[in-house]
Amino acid sequence: MSAFQHFLNRRLTNKLPGRDAQKIMAPYPKNGRANKTHYEPANDDFRNSSVLVPFIGWKDELEVLLTLRTESINHGGQLSFPGGGKEGDETIEETALREAQEEIGLHTQHVEISGRLTPLYVGHSDNMVTPVIAFLKEEQTFTPNPNEVDEIITVSFSDLVAEHNLIEEEWSLRGTPYHVPFWNIYRVPLWGATAMMMSELVELYKEFLDQK
Q1: Distances (CA, A) of 77 to 32, 66, 74, 129, 191
Q2: What secondary structure letter does DSSP report for 190?
Q3: The pTM is what?
Q4: What does the mean pLDDT of the chain come to?
Q5: Which of 111, 114, 136, 153 has the lowest CB atom count within 10 Å?
């Protein structure tokens, strides 16, 4: 077990950085006023979803896996974690593993779950998304499902904590000007809900580095 995995196994059972960490990477309106889409649900009839945050456990450098979604589906052309909506009586962990198996051909028998990050409500799709941290212990070749995934990439945490890779630009989102923070670590930016979930993980990684 890696030192970071051991750290997360303990740390994820305690109070997490939570919404403050997520908001570091949250787009915000240029006019400074709160928009209609908050990161808290207005009611409790949202859909429960989960994503798998897969750490590559067989490399010397700490890396996390991301997918580039196909253009034809929701959030097409964006970087994301594998995941989707909860079905039936599945647990959050079972949903994340099933979706990762469907999207990237994950060998679930070689996965060790460390725990959950803070759920993030995504207003425009009315989903409460829970990130599930997993370490992939056995080397494998991933197979992208072409209906959902164009590419599978891995990103090192050294790139995520490097300040020069963190950029903010003004974008138009649904016709409204926004300030959008993103990581410039691939040919498309890592932004939005995935970046917000990743941001909490990066804050935990900084805690880990501080204690070493």
Answers
A1: 28, 12, 9, 19, 12
A2: B
A3: 0.93
A4: 92
A5: 153
